[in-house]
């Protein structure tokens, strides 16, 4: 055979077998570990605006906090995997009832179950919304 020609003959191919002995790492991300936009707003605003217009910074921060509440746009985008998790749809807690009476000057309302509720947000009682 001339030097510029070569040929390979493969009789059989054996695929190597690998056995995994370590448990896989949990790839799920908890909502608590995700970065919130509202926590990063101040460092994104120029220094002169932060110094001269602190109320504007608070306004923008509160605006993004409202978008991050459960069911609002930023929450849906960041937690889309949970919203499309079919296994959780049947047992999702969407409402609850008061477990005791509510006084007109109450600052705490005892309820039956808050499992899927956010740590902070809006409360709707009849037609009234409370933040």
Quickly describe the structure.
This protein is mostly helical and 131 residues long. 33% of the residues lie in helices and 5% in strands. The chain has a domain at 34-117.
What structural category arises from helix and sheet content? Answer: mainly alpha
What's the Cα radius of gyration? 27 Å
The ordered string of helix (H) and strand (E) elements is: HHHHHHEE
Average predicted confidence as pLDDT: 76
**Total number of strands:** 2
| Portion in strands | under 5%
Helix coverage percent: 25-40%
The largest beta-sheet arranges its strands as 1-2
**What about the largest sheet?**
2 strands, antiparallel
Span between termini: 85 Å
Low-confidence stretches: none
Provide a count of the helices: 6
The shape is flat
Fold and architecture overview:
- Helices cover 33% and strands 5% of the residues.
- Helix 1 (37-44) packs antiparallel against helix 3 (54-68).
- It has helices spanning 37-44, 47-52, 54-68, 73-78, 80-83, 86-89; strands at residues 123-125, 128-130.
- It has 6 helices and 2 strands.
- It has a domain at 34-117.
- With 131 residues, the protein is mainly alpha-helical.
Helix and strand arrangement:
Blueprint: H1 37-44, H2 47-52, H3 54-68, H4 73-78, H5 80-83, H6 86-89, E1 123-125, E2 128-130
Keywords:
131 residues, flat, 2 strands, two-stranded antiparallel ribbon
